[in-house]
User: Which sequence fits this backbone?
């Protein structure tokens, strides 16, 4: 089996650490592994010393798994691509660039072949939503999506997790969030834009239309930060052109890659963020037909935002790349 020189950019961050674990777990065929810290060299992982960002750090690298922040990717993504690497970017920098494919392997793997050295990872909340919706869209053609997200604090970084844990112990200092997050909900993720939605919400709109290759799909999102350490949850309502019954939806979802149906309301069994933590699947439950419109369907979708919502998706893109 051919082996590849792989770099992880942003190794000190939660996503970078998760990328490192997943590369090892999935036995990705690595010849040489380079761990890059934008803040500079120093530190190590299993005997591999961290290196800093330099002009020649990507020389000889085949694949870069990157999660360093958008401004760093803006500068260094093209540098890596010019050096001959494929730069798989987990930041928002290239997602809406028409020249850069935006990919979820279970949704639009065919777009990978369009890359010119850079491939973008979608936003975590979009990834899990589209993994669940793709088989339904293929069958019934989705016209409209109304989604409310319940996003864990890990999506805001390690400082946010520490703040929740401190507040749960009685230290109510606020640094990462404007408001107390423990025992509370914050109906704002990222900044507001001119239409009164947030940037996080508009990511879900624009990324869905790009990956489904359909500007006519209407998406109405509300993104909420919740006092959960890890794993995002979403309440999703879809309207389709073709009727999808609950029975048909379950049949389609059970066959879908990356999806696990957890739906047994008689025994109060449905996806929970605590059960999705550390798992690769996207979990779907509370599947029911919308009683307010003829062709509507409701779903409850949960996934580990650090794994499928970020690190795992990037590694899966790399796996498809090497198969090609």
Assistant:
């Amino acid at each position: 089996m051919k082996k590849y020189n792989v770099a992880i950019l942003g190794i000190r961050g939660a996503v970078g650490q998760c990328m490192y674990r997943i590369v090892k777990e999935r036995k990705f065929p690595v010849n040489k592994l380079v761990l890059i810290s934008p803040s500079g060299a120093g530190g190590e992982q299993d005997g591999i010393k961290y290196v800093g960002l330099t002009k020649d750090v990507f020389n000889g690298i085949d694949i870069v798994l990157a999660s360093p922040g958008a401004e760093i990717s803006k500068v260094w993504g093209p540098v890596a691509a010019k050096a001959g690497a494929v730069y798989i970017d987990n930041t928002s920098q290239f997602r809406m660039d028409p020249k850069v494919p935006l990919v979820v392997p279970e949704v639009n793997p065919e777009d990978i072949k369009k890359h010119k050295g850079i491939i973008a990872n979608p936003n975590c909340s979009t990834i899990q939503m589209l993994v669940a919706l793709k088989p339904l869209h293929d069958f019934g053609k989705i016209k409209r999506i109304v989604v409310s997200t319940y996003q864990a604090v890990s999506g805001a970084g390690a400082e946010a997790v520490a703040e929740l844990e401190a507040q749960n112990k009685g230290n109510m200092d606020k640094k990462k969030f404007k408001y107390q997050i423990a025992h509370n909900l914050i109906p704002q993720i990222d900044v507001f834009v001119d239409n009164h939605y947030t940037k996080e919400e508009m990511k879900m709109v624009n990324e869905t239309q790009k990956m489904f290759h359909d500007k006519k799909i209407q998406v109405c999102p509300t993104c909420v930060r919740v006092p959960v350490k890890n794993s995002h949850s979403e309440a999703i309502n879809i309207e389709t052109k073709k009727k999808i019954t609950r029975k048909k939806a379950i049949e389609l979802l059970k066959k879908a890659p990356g999806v696990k149906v957890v739906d047994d309301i008689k025994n109060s069994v449905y996806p929970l963020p605590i059960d999705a933590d550390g798992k690769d699947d996207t979990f779907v439950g509370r599947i029911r037909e919308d009683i307010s419109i003829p062709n509507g369907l409701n779903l409850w979708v949960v996934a580990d935002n650090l794994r499928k919502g970020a690190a795992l998706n990037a590694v899966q893109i790399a796996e498809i790349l090497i198969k090609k």
User: Anything to note?
Assistant: Residues 125-305 form a domain with the Dihydrodipicolinate Reductase; domain 2 fold (CATH 3.30.360.10).
